Amino acid sequence: MDRSHPVVLFDGVCNLCSASVQFIIDRDPGSVFRFASLQSETGRQLLAELGCSAPEGDPESVLLIEEGQLYSRSDAALRIARRLHGPARLAAVFRLLPHGLRDGAYRFVARNRYRWFGKAESCRLPTPDLRARFLD
Fold it and tell me: What one-character DSSP code corresponds to residue 88?
């Protein structure tokens, strides 16, 4: 597996998370990011290689593996944002906020994401032209 690309691990049944993946793809014209759902064998394998396991119950909504490091919550989201094109890149300014405040807001949204945005029965399959960017 090519380790030169950062990998976004996402909750594959979360509608907000799936929309976030599409948001990233639309603002990543260089195709820097790769994607795998946390529920997939690939997602679990990538975490195991880092000495971690997928969270039990409701998984984290997004994790980022970049240069052999695992980032979670607001750190993951903001590291992703800084590599995107367009105004989305400006979200990186939130790194100036205290870590606890950022993660508190992140956890609030993550806890409510299924209620607010819904949950799919299964992971969506990528379109054929995007298939190469998905690892599972």
Answer: G
Contact present, 123 and 40 (Cβ < 8 Å): yes
131: region left, alpha or beta (phi > 0 left; psi from -120 to 50 alpha): alpha
CA atoms within 13 A of residue 80's CA, in its CB half-sphere: 29
Tell me the two tokens of residue 23. Answer: 């948001």
Euclidean distance between CA atoms 26 and 120, whole angstroms: 21
Instruction: Give the pLDDT confidence score for residue 57 in this predicted structure.
Output: 61
Give the span between the Cα atoms of 92 and 112, in whole angstroms. Answer: 23
pTM (predicted TM-score):
0.85
Q: Is the pLDDT of residue 25 over 80?
A: yes
Domain boundaries, given as residue ranges, for the chain: 7-126
What tokens were used for 64?
């980022």
Residues 123 and 37: beta-carbon distance below 8 Å: yes
Question: Helix, strand, coil % (nearest 5) of the chain?
Answer: 45, 15, 40
Cβ atoms of 64 and 5 closer than 8 Å: no
Pairwise CA distance, residues 83 & 75, whole Å:
13
